[in-house]
Amino acid sequence: MKQIIRAFSLGLLVAAVIIGVTYYVEKPEQAQSTSSPTIDDSIKLVEDDGYYVYEENLESKVSQLEQEIEELQQNTNNDPEEPTDELGEQTEEAEEEGEETTITIESGMTMPEIVALLDENELIVDENAFISYLEENELTRYIQIGEFNLHRGMSVEELTNIITRQTEE
Q1: Please, are residues 124 and 115 in contact by the beta-carbon 8 Å criterion?
Q2: Does 65 have pLDDT greater than 60?
Q3: Nearest CA among 122, 133, 128 for reference residue 156
Q4: pLDDT above 90 covers what percent of the chain?
Q5: What is the rounded distance in angstroms from the CA atom of residue 18 to the CA atom of residue 99?
Q6: Which CATH class is domain 100-163?
Q7: What is the pLDDT of residue 86?
Q8: Which segments of 51-167 does DSSP mark as H helices, in order?
Q9: Ranked by mean pLDDT, which of 11-20, 58-67, 104-113 comes out on top?
Q10: Contact at 8 Å (CB) between 153 and 126?
Q11: Distances, alpha carbon 37 to alpha carbons 33, 42, 43, 81, in Å
Q12: Residue 144 falls in which region: left (phi positive, over 0), alpha (psi -120 to 50) or beta
């Protein structure tokens, strides 16, 4: 019985020595490969984790942004272009309801094909903005097949409601 216990303890001792040697041999390489990050890198890592890093000159940045907003508002008041919404679509005041267009969405059409069809018929202004709207509202999988009567003056919401059949035409 004594021999079994001695053999077992010797095995534990040898295993501990092997693990210790491996730990001390590998550790210096890891320490050399990692260097302390710069302040900018640290700030970026913290912000990527969802935290906000307070800056000393925050008030000056806020006042600068407020001035930029005022300038942009003055430029839009001085520039009487056709008003557009956030997706680049012309608003209802800017464009009268256009001619009616019938499009057909067939089975097996991909999202880029559908968007290209809408763009060819000049029903949307920006393909990427339309796709983003569909993805943000999780409507891409609800697009139905069939024929749809659409107008050029429709907003993105109206257009999507019709092709997803959320509201009747």
Answers
A1: yes
A2: yes
A3: 133
A4: 11
A5: 82
A6: alpha beta
A7: 47
A8: 58-78, 111-120, 127-136, 156-163
A9: 11-20
A10: no
A11: 12, 6, 10, 48
A12: beta
Assign residue 2 a region: left if phi > 0, alpha if psi is -120 to 50, beta otherwise? alpha
127 Cβ partners below 8 Å, 6+ apart?
115, 116, 119
The one-letter amino acid at 49: D
Statement: the pTM of the whole predicted model exceeds 0.85: no
The length of the chain is 169
Tell whether the model's pLDDT for residue 4 goes beyond 60: yes
- By CB neighbour count within 10 A (0-12 exposed, 13-18 middle, 19+ buried), where does 153 fall? middle
Beta strands in 5-109 (DSSP E): 100-105
Q: Which amino acid is at 106?
A: E
Domain borders along the chain are: 2-35, 40-78, 100-163
The answer, yes or no, to whether residue 89 has pLDDT greater than 50, is no
Output the CA–CA distances (angstroms, integers) from residue 59 to 39, 50, 54, in the order listed. Answer: 21, 21, 11
Higher-pLDDT residue of 115 and 95 is 115
- Interatomic CA distance for residues 163 and 155, integer angstroms: 13
Least confident range from 5-14, 52-61, 105-114: namely 52-61
- SS3 state of residue 83: coil
What is the amino acid identity at position 104?
T
